[in-house]
Automatic annotation (TrEMBL):
Residues annotated as binding S-adenosyl-L-methionine: T129, G150, D172, N215
GO cellular component term, pick one: cytoplasm
InterPro entries cross-referenced by the UniProt entry: Ribosomal_L11_MeTrfase_PrmA (IPR050078), Ribosomal_PrmA_MeTrfase (IPR004498), SAM-dependent_MTases_sf (IPR029063)
Task of the protein: Methylates ribosomal protein L11.
Transmembrane segments: none
Keywords: Cytoplasm, Methyltransferase, Ribonucleoprotein, Ribosomal protein, S-adenosyl-L-methionine, Transferase
Protein name: Ribosomal protein L11 methyltransferase
GO biological process terms held by the UniProt record: methylation
EC number: 2.1.1.-
Organism this protein belongs to: Breznakibacter xylanolyticus
Family: Belongs to the methyltransferase superfamily. PrmA family.
Keyword Cytoplasm: yes
Catalytic activity field: L-lysyl-[protein] + 3 S-adenosyl-L-methionine = N(6),N(6),N(6)-trimethyl-L-lysyl-[protein] + 3 S-adenosyl-L-homocysteine + 3 H(+)
């Protein structure tokens, strides 16, 4: 599926305003963002792009003006874009490295993940993905059944498998992500991760999971949390990200309503990733 890149330029540049605009666009289907010196780039599936929605969603801030440029990115250009401009190897706590197949190897790192980025986001560079990876590294996955909800590149499920998970299931609404996850499983010799196209509605009737990973966005998490809990084992862990620190109280309230107990959270550049346990 082609994606549309919207390059937003702020005058004068303000990191706080940039963060506000990113949060606003994150509420209307924009999937990923790349910071620039004068603003940011935002990516959305081309069929979902609308200039009218974009201009209605961004609420002007006094003292800062903005302009934007629009560019459609064909599917076949994405690998080259990432390789040339964005995707560099990332090492997390000296325990995990995420690299592309075009990067050199890191034999001294215990968990080595190879990601073919394409147009499915999730390479470990965004704060939310990095924090989710740290949660996985901090928890024993041995023998557990794990759900990677909104799997993207499959990076979270792949690390869970490397950490000893017995079975991993990835689900995403985008066929590109499903295909990319399957490709990345093959690149990393992961044989216990299945992937399917769908959303939270497809969870109905599934066998329960020990761990559910959901790095999506605030609104979807709030709406779908009840569906996650329905397939989470008592005592099981739900780890979420994709929202800012100021949204954490809303997430905690909804979690409590669904019988979840707050454990802890990680925070980086105002993004947060909390973990919850389902009461026994």
């Amino acid at each position: 599926m082609p994606y549309t890149k919207v390059t937003v330029t702020l005058r004068p540049y303000s990191e706080a305003v940039s963060d506000i605009f990113v949060a606003q666009l994150g509420e209307i289907d924009y999937e990923s963002f790349v910071e620039t010196e004068s603003g940011f780039e935002a990516y959305v599936q081309s069929p979902l792009f609308s200039r009218e929605r974009l201009e209605q969603q961004i609420i002007p801030v006094d003292g800062v003006s903005f302009t934007y440029d629009v560019e459609e990115i064909p599917d076949q250009n994405w690998n080259e874009e990432w390789e040339k401009n964005y995707f560099q190897p990332i090492v997390i706590d000296d325990l995990c490295v995420v690299r592309g197949p075009f990067h050199p190897e890191f034999p001294h790192i215990p968990h080595r993940i190879v990601i073919e980025p394409k147009m499915a986001f999730g390479t470990g560079h965004h704060e939310t993905t990095g924090m989710m990876l740290k949660h996985i590294l901090a928890n024993d996955m041995t023998g557990l059944r794990v759900l990677d909800m909104g799997c993207g590149t499959g990076i979270l499920g792949i690390l869970a498998s490397m950490r000893g998970a017995r079975e991993v299931v990835g689900i995403d609404i985008d066929q590109w992500s499903v295909d990319n996850t399957l490709e990345n499983c093959s690149l990393n010799h992961i044989h216990n991760m299945s992937v399917q196209l769908g959303d939270a509605a497809s969870l109905s009737g599934m066998l329960p999971y020990d761990v559910i990973l959901a790095n999506i966005n605030r609104n979807i998490l709030l709406e779908d949390m009840v569906k996650y809990v329905a397939v989470l084992k008592p005592g099981g862990m739900l780890i979420m990200s994709g929202f800012y620190a100021e949204d954490l109280p809303l997430i905690q309230q909804e979690a409590q309503r669904n019988g979840l107990t707050y454990v802890d959270h990680r925070e980086q550049n105002r993004w947060v990733a909390p973990a919850f346990l389902l009461k026994l």
